[in-house]
Amino acid sequence: MAGTQRYLRYIVFALVCLILLFFISSSSSVTSANWPSSYTGGDSAVPSPQPPHGKEQQTEPKPSSTPNNDKALPPATDAGERMNATFVTLARNSDLWEIAKSIRHVEDRFNRKFNYDWVFLNDDDFNDEFKKVTSALVSGKTKYGKIPEEHWSFPDFIDQDRAAKVREEMKEKKIIYGDSISYRHMCRYESGFFFRHPLMLDYEWYWRVEPSIELYCDINYDTFKFMADNKKKYSFVLSLYEYVETIPTLWDAVKNFTATYPQHIEKDNSMTFLSEDDGKTYNHCHFWSNFEIGNLNWLRSDAYIDYFTSLDHAGGFFYERWGDAPVHSIAAALMLKKEELHFFNDIAYYHVPFTHCPTGEQYRLDHKCHCNPKDNFDWNGYSCTARFYETNNMKKPEGYEKDQ
C-alpha cells in the first residue's frame, strides 16, 4: 500500500513538471512588442506611420551613447556691447587641473553668456597641454604670457643675506609662506607688475581668478559693464584682517608715501576702513585680492606707480612678507573715492578657507545658488565687511543677523 502511494506521488509530480514546461515554451515564443522609433513616452506621443505590409522600414543604427547636440544648448552670449576686459590668472603648468576647475565655474556661472578673453601669466613657458586644455574650456580668446625675469627676481637694492635671514626666522615662527621665495615674488608681481605685462596692455578692465576657486550663483549681468556704468574702479567679495607678523612696517611705509605724495591721496577716501585713529595706526583690514574686478588704467596711473615704487624700495616684500592684498587694499582705500569701491554681495565665491554666500534667501533661490548660508564669512568677527558698510554708511543686507 505504501509503495503504491509513493508511485502515485511520483506520477503527479511528473505531470506538474510537464505542464510548467509547456507554459514556459509557449510564452517564450511570443514576439515582443516593437515600439515605433518616434515614441518617447507620455500620453501625447503619437506613433509614426508604419510602412506598407511587406516592406521593411529602413532605420539608421542607434548610437552607443547620447550625442552632445550643441544646437540644443542655450545661446552662448547675451546681446549687448562688450567691455574692453579680460580674466587674468597667474599660474604654472602644475596648476592646470586646479585652474581648470576655476575656469569651469566662471564659464558656467558667467562667461558662457559673455565670452570674455582670458590671459594666463607664468614665470616660465606654458606647455602644450596647459594651452590645449584651457583654450578648450574658455569661451573667449586665450592668451599666454611669460613674465619678464626682472619682474620675478630680487631687485638690485635688496640685501640678499638680510632677506634670507628673515625667511629663516619666519620659518622658525611657522608664519604661513614665511620661508617662501616664490610667494614673495608672486606678491610683488601682483602688487606692481601684472597690469604692465604686454598682453594686459590691450585691456581696460580685469577680473582676477585663482586656481581652485568656486562660484556658487548665476551671474546674469555684465560685471565689467556694471563697474564702468557706476564709475567703480575696484571691487571685492571677501575682506578680513591680515597676519600682523607679515606686515610689521607696511603702515610706516604707507605713511612715508602719503607724506611724500599728498597729491595722490583722495579727500573723500576710505581711511576709516583702514584705521580707527585717523591713520596713526593700521587695523590690518584688507580686501582679499584672490578675487578682484578692477580698472587697469587706475593701476597704471602715476599715483599707483609712485605708491608701488615707494613700497618696493622700502624692501618689505622681501625683508618681511607683504602681501598684494593689503597693498592693493590700502591703495584703493586711500587713492580712490569711497563710491569708486564696490562690494559684490551677489557674487557667491569660495577660496580656501573662506566662503562668501550672498546674504538674502530670495536672491540665492532666484540665482540657483548652491552655497550654504551658514558658511558665509561676511559677518564673522574676523571679517572686515561690516566695517566697509559702516565706512560707506550703507545699510546691511536684510537677514545678515542670521549669518552671524
UniProtKB/TrEMBL annotation:
<dbReference type="GO" id="GO:0006493">
    <property type="term" value="P:protein O-linked glycosylation"/>
</dbReference>
<keyword id="KW-0808">Transferase</keyword>
<dbReference type="GO" id="GO:0000026">
    <property type="term" value="F:alpha-1,2-mannosyltransferase activity"/>
</dbReference>
<feature type="region of interest" description="Disordered">
    <location>
        <begin position="38"/>
        <end position="78"/>
    </location>
</feature>
<keyword id="KW-0328">Glycosyltransferase</keyword>
<protein>
    <submittedName>
        <fullName>Glycosyltransferase family 15 protein</fullName>
    </submittedName>
</protein>
<dbReference type="GO" id="GO:0005794">
    <property type="term" value="C:Golgi apparatus"/>
</dbReference>
<dbReference type="GO" id="GO:0006487">
    <property type="term" value="P:protein N-linked glycosylation"/>
</dbReference>
<dbReference type="GO" id="GO:0016020">
    <property type="term" value="C:membrane"/>
</dbReference>
<feature type="signal peptide">
    <location>
        <begin position="1"/>
        <end position="29"/>
    </location>
</feature>
<keyword id="KW-0732">Signal</keyword>
<dbReference type="InterPro" id="IPR002685">
    <property type="entry name" value="Glyco_trans_15"/>
</dbReference>
<feature type="compositionally biased region" description="Polar residues">
    <location>
        <begin position="60"/>
        <end position="69"/>
    </location>
</feature>
<dbReference type="GO" id="GO:0000032">
    <property type="term" value="P:cell wall mannoprotein biosynthetic process"/>
</dbReference>
<feature type="active site" description="Nucleophile">
    <location>
        <position position="292"/>
    </location>
</feature>
<comment type="similarity">
    <text>Belongs to the glycosyltransferase 15 family.</text>
</comment>
<dbReference type="Pfam" id="PF01793">
    <property type="entry name" value="Glyco_transf_15"/>
</dbReference>
<dbReference type="InterPro" id="IPR029044">
    <property type="entry name" value="Nucleotide-diphossugar_trans"/>
</dbReference>
